[in-house]
Amino acid sequence: MSTPENEIESPEIGDETTEATQAETAVEEAAPEAEVAEAVDPVAELKAQLRRLPGEWYVIHSYAGYENKVKTNLETRVQNLDVGDYIFQVEVPTEEVTEIKNGQPKKVNRKVLPGYILVRMELNDESWSAVRNTPGVTGFVGMTSRPSPLSIKEVLQFLMPRAEVRKAEAAKAAAAAGESVEAAAAAASNLVEVDFEVGESVTVMDGPFATLPASISEVNTEQRKVKVLVSIFGRETPVELGFNQVEKL
C-alpha cells in the first residue's frame, strides 16, 4: 500500500521528465535558427578585411591580354628589389561567367578590368619606381602629380564582382527567410553570371530563325532567356529565345 508521501512524489518526477523533454525540444527547435544566425555576409566580411590591410589600392595600366604576365613581372621585381615592405599585393580581378558555345553552356573566368591591374601598396618614391618601371606597365590610373588610390567601395566592386555579390545577396535573403545556412548556400551557388549584354550581336542557333544574325535587346538571367531583334524582310522583329538558342559572334 502506497503512502501519501509516495503519491505526492510521483507527479513531481513526471513534471521533471516533462520539463526535460520540453527543454530538449526547445534546443532542437532553436538549432535551425542558430544555423541561420551563423550565416556570414561575405561582402561585409571582405570589406572589413580590406580595411584592416596595410597600404592603399592603386590601378595600373597594362596592355590588354598581358595582365597576368605583368602581374608576374611586378611580383618578381618586388622580390628582386626588396620592396616587399611597400608593395603588398598584386591582383588581376576575374569573375566566373557562363558562355554559350555551340549551344552548350561553358564556365570560364573573365577579366573584370581588361588592361588593368590592382596593386596594394604604400606609395613612396621607391614603390612608385618599382611599379612604374615594370615591363608591360604603361602608367598609373588617375596620375597627375600623384596617383589616386581607390576607395574601399571601388576595391570591393573589383575584387568581389557582380556574380559574387548576387550570390551573397541571395544567401542573405534566404537566411532572412528562415532557411538554413546550407540551403541558402546551395541556392546561391546556382546563381552564375551569364556573359550576354544588351546590344551584343549573336547568331540564332535553333528554331525557325536558326543561322540568322540578331541583336540582344533584353537579358533575363532569372529565366535564362534573351530577347533579340531579328531582321525579317527588312524589319527588326523581337524574338524571345533561351540562352542555349543563341551564340555569341
From TrEMBL:
GO terms for cellular component: cytosol. Pfam families: NusG (PF02357). InterPro entries: NGN, NGN-like_dom, NGN_dom_sf, NusG-like, Rib_uL2_dom2, Transcrpt_antiterm_NusG, Transcrpt_antiterm_NusG_bac_CS, Translation_prot_SH3-like_sf. Residues 1-18, 26-36 have a biased composition (Acidic residues). One of its GO terms (biological process) is DNA-templated transcription termination. It comes from the Bacteria. SMART domains: NGN (SM00738). Keywords: Transcription, Transcription antitermination, Transcription regulation, Transcription termination. Residues 1-36 are annotated as: Disordered. Residues 54-162 form the NusG-like N-terminal domain. Participates in transcription elongation, termination and antitermination. Belongs to the NusG family. This is Transcription termination/antitermination protein NusG. It comes from Gordonia neofelifaecis NRRL B-59395.
